[in-house]
Design brief:
alpha+beta; 2 domains; six-stranded antiparallel β-sheet; 16 helices; 46% helix
């Protein structure tokens, strides 16, 4: 028994990050425990003939990643076993590619931690989740740790599948584009819009894809100005589960996974968050900004109108009008009803102007025509 305790202490010391670690918040530990419970629940459902289930970290990149640097120090064997996604876009600069890294099982103890080494490993993972949550809280900032994946495939096979997923033809296009599947903001905007077959094709041999829930809603001025350094955002999981085994669809469908509406939903997060940031900078109160549902509806409307990304952003901005009509809640806001005859005519004039002058913008045309009678 003494030698076991000493071994655990040694692993704990090796797992420390230069003695500068701060104990992660309780909710970060709770998220680790949820992840571990789900992982071992899946393992218990396996048959003896099944390949062993593994957990993998999906990183946005390896180079210049704080998580990667700490992982290489704490678990060098896992770092050596990583697989960069073999996307031709990153040829010659594989360190910038998304990366699949085995997560040592010591970080996912079954039924709770029973050794100091397990406790420290769990704390390390919790620290990474907390850091990822702070990055997510910034909304428009890069995120190092993107997801935790469960799969019976090797890291290399998972990376091969992700390379195919990242090679997407936008609907109606004959030219492929890099699709940022690894970005949790992209994934969470489009996942609910996909059908069960599409979700199965997306995941391939991946059984579950866990990401931290990304902010999607009004942005307070305090949070925007303070950034995420002093914020302690609440952590929660967004879980994408494989609804069924892929149904024999061809690989061609993997490269053409989304329809037009889904493609634009996948790329809507930056637009919505920039609009909310703009409202926050103007000092517009939280309750006076468009809520998540309204933002999603306006972005879809802008897409249906065929507006460019810049014009969709301006469309949402111009569509929303703060007002002071509610004495109980102070300043509130409301959206233009574009089906109203007046606004329908204004919109028709704006669209005509955009067609006549490719250099014209939605915002300037809106100001020109909004009082049209």
């Amino acid at each position: 028994m003494p030698h076991r305790i000493l071994a655990d202490l040694e692993q704990t010391l090796l797992g420390s990050t230069s003695g500068q670690s701060i104990e992660p918040p309780a909710d970060a530990i709770a998220r680790c425990q949820e992840l571990a419970a789900a992982y071992h629940s899946r393992k218990r459902q396996q048959t003896p003939e099944d390949r062993s289930l593994r957990a993998y970290l999906l990183l946005d990149r390896w180079d210049d990643s704080a998580v990667a640097a700490q992982l290489a120090e704490v678990w060098p064997e896992a770092a050596e076993a990583r697989a960069a996604v073999p996307d031709a876009f990153y040829a010659g600069r594989e360190g910038e590619a998304p990366c699949v890294v085995p997560l040592p099982e010591i970080a996912l103890p079954d039924g709770g931690t029973s050794t100091l080494a397990q406790a420290r490993a769990q704390e390390i993972l919790a620290e990474w989740l907390q850091a990822a949550s702070r990055q997510a809280h910034k909304r428009l900032a890069p995120q190092d740790l993107c997801a935790v994946l469960f799969s019976t495939d090797s890291a290399g096979w998972v990376a091969q599948h992700l390379a195919k997923l990242g090679f997407q033809y936008p609907p109606g296009s004959t030219s492929a584009r890099v699709f940022r599947y690894q970005d949790p903001r992209v994934m969470q905007r489009v996942w609910p819009e996909l059908g069960a077959a599409q979700q199965g094709i997306w995941l391939g041999g991946i059984q579950a894809w866990w990401t931290l829930t990304q902010p999607w809603g009004p942005w307070t001025q305090e949070d925007l100005m303070a950034g995420a350094e002093h914020a302690v955002p609440t952590l929660s999981w967004f879980q994408a589960q494989r609804p069924a085994a892929p149904d024999g669809r061809t690989e061609r469908l993997l490269h053409r996974l989304m329809n037009t509406d889904q493609w634009h939903a996948a790329h809507s997060a930056p637009i919505g968050n920039r609009v909310w940031a703009g409202f926050a900078r103007r000092g517009l109160p939280f309750q006076a900004q468009p809520d998540a549902r309204t933002m999603t509806r306006l972005l879809k409307k802008g897409h249906v109108l065929g507006l460019s990304e810049t014009d969709r952003q301006d469309f949402v901005w111009c569509s929303w009008h703060p007002s002071s009509q509610n004495p109980l809640h102070g300043v509130i806001g409301q959206s233009i009803d574009w089906d109203d005859p007046h606004w329908r005519n204004v919109l028709a004039r704006i669209q005509q102007g955009l067609g006549d002058d490719p250099k014209a913008g939605f915002a300037s045309l809106f100001e020109e025509h909004k009082h049209f009678a």
